[in-house]
C-alpha cells in the first residue's frame, strides 16, 4: 500500500491530505488541492483515485447532499496519511539539510 | 442528469453503466462545477478516466469486466482451440496417445471448474430469481441449430469436390466462421446470465474454481506443445506434411492451436487474479 501512495504528486495522497481536515465532495477536493498544493486534479483522475482509495478502505463516501457526495478519511486512511507524511518529512529534512551543506 | 449539458452527458456516458449507477450523479455535478466545456484538458482527463474504468480492474464499482465474464470468454477461446486440436490430432491417433489423454483430462478439469463456479448462478436461475434471463439460455441452442444448418449447406456445396478445391475451402471456412459465431454467442449469453442473475456465492468457491481453470488451461497448453514435438519426433513426414486444419501445413495449424490455448490460459489467469483481488 505504501508503494501505491509513495509518490509526492500521486492523486491518492493529495486527496487524503485534502480530506485530513474534514469531509469534502469532488469539486471541493479539486479546489482545495489546487489552492494548497498547486496541482489541478482532472475529473477522471480524481474519480479513479477516489475509487481506488475507497476500495482500499482509506476513505468512505458519505450520503449524497443533492448531487454532491462528500468523502471522508477513515481511520486507516488517517494512519496511512500519517505514515506517508512522516516519511516525506524525513526525506524533505534530509534533502534540505544536504542541499544546505552543499550550498554553504 | 437530463438537464446537464450535452458534453457532460457524453462524458459521463463514456463510463461503464455499473460505474455510472454508483458515481454518475456526483460525477455529472463535478463536471458542471468544473465547467468542463471550457477546459479541453479536463475533457481529455475525463475520457482517460473512462477508459481506465473500462480497462483496468479496480473493484466492483470501477469495472464491468467481472472475473467470471473474462473466464467465460477464456473458455470460449479454449473451446475453439480444443476443437482445432481435436481436428488436428484425429488423424494422428497413433502418435503420443498418452499425451492426448492427459491433455483431454486437463481440459475437462479446467472446463468443469468453470461449471462449478457457475453453479450458484444456475441454482438462482432455476429458482426463478430472474425470469427474463431464461431467454439467454436459449441462445446456445439456437446458435447450435443454426450452425448445424450451415454445416448441411456447406456439405452440399463441397459435395463432389476435392479437398483442395475452392468450393471445399469456402465451405470449410463458412463452417469454421459459423462455429466461431456460435461459440461467441454462447459466451455472450453465459456472461450476461452470470452478470445479471443475483446469486449468493459460497466463500472461496469462485476463487478456487478460477484458479483451477487457469492451471488446467495452462497444463493443456503445455501438453499441446509436447504433443506437437512428439509428432515431430515420431512421424516427421506428418509434421512437415499438409495434415493441418483444412489440409493446410501441419506446423501453422499446431502453432495456431497452441497460441489460442495460451491466450485462453492467460485470460483465465487474469480472471483468477481479479477474483482473488475481489475476495481479499
UniProtKB/TrEMBL annotation, chain A:
Lineage: Bacteria, Bacillati, Actinomycetota, Actinomycetes, Micrococcales
Stored InterPro entries: ArsR-like_HTH, Metal_resp_DNA-bind_regulator, Tscrpt_reg_PadR_N, WH-like_DNA-bd_sf, WH_DNA-bd_sf
Leader peptide range in chain numbering: none
Any Pfam family: PadR
Residue span(s) of domain Transcription regulator PadR N-terminal: 15-82
Domain of life: Bacteria
Protein name in UniProt: Helix-turn-helix transcriptional regulator
From TrEMBL, chain B:
Record-annotated membrane-spanning stretches: 70-89, 101-126, 133-158, 170-190, 210-230, 250-271
Highest taxon of source: Bacteria
Keywords: Membrane, Transmembrane, Transmembrane helix
Organism the protein comes from: Cellulomonas alba
Protein name: Uncharacterized protein
